[in-house]
Design a protein that fits this description.
184 residues; alpha/beta; four-stranded parallel beta sheet; 4 strands; disordered C terminus; TIM_sf
């Protein structure tokens, strides 16, 4: 139905769907496969909770979510996928945002997992995004991350002016990051 009404992208795996509605990795993987099958692009959100992080199992949790979905993704479909890292522990009123250094570490780890388990072409084709209380004040620091291709914006996106500033920070950060890679 979504493809039929002109949708191009679908968001799957968001923490609210996983933790409030009980969507499992298996259900999300089935949704990912079906969406790709009908021509939709997928924003697959993977996230670690405070409990997983405190138990030293954050990376294991993230890789488990990604690997479950990867089982239904063909090697040539990774360009239709965006993996969004959502540190669940860093989202919401009063939460301490994830540091840019930690966000980069996680995004790089996820991209390496794709390279090692699917292939280098898939790792280059997949987009990686950060979603964890992105706002005007911190967008530039996340935008400059080497493995971050964008954002999934929550509440800050409800204000058009704030959203425009976040988008501008992303555009400026990617130019800066590209310049750094080129040695300019």
């Amino acid at each position: 139905m979504l493809a039929g009404v002109g949708c191009k992208w679908v968001l799957l795996g968001h923490a609210d769907r996983r933790h409030v509605l009980g969507e499992t990795d298996e259900l999300i993987a089935a949704k990912v496969a079906k969406c790709l099958e009908v021509g939709l692009h997928v924003n697959l959100t993977v996230g670690d909770t405070a409990e997983a992080r405190e138990a030293g199992k954050a990376d294991e949790s993230l890789v488990g979510q990604l690997s479950a979905a990867a089982a239904g993704i063909s090697k040539d479909s990774w360009g239709k996928l965006c993996v969004a890292y959502e540190p669940v522990w860093a989202v919401g009123d009063g939460a301490q945002p994830c540091s840019p250094e930690e966000a980069q570490r996680v995004l790089a780890m996820l991209r390496c997992w794709v390279a090692d388990n699917v292939g280098k072409a898939a790792a280059q084709a997949v987009r990686m995004a950060y979603t964890g209380s992105v706002n005007e004040a911190n967008a530039a620091s996340y935008a400059a991350l080497a493995d971050n291709n964008g954002f999934v914006v929550g509440r800050a996106g409800l204000d058009a002016g704030k959203l425009l500033n976040i988008c501008s920070a992303l555009a400026e950060g990617k130019v800066t990051a590209s310049d750094k890679l080129l040695g300019s």
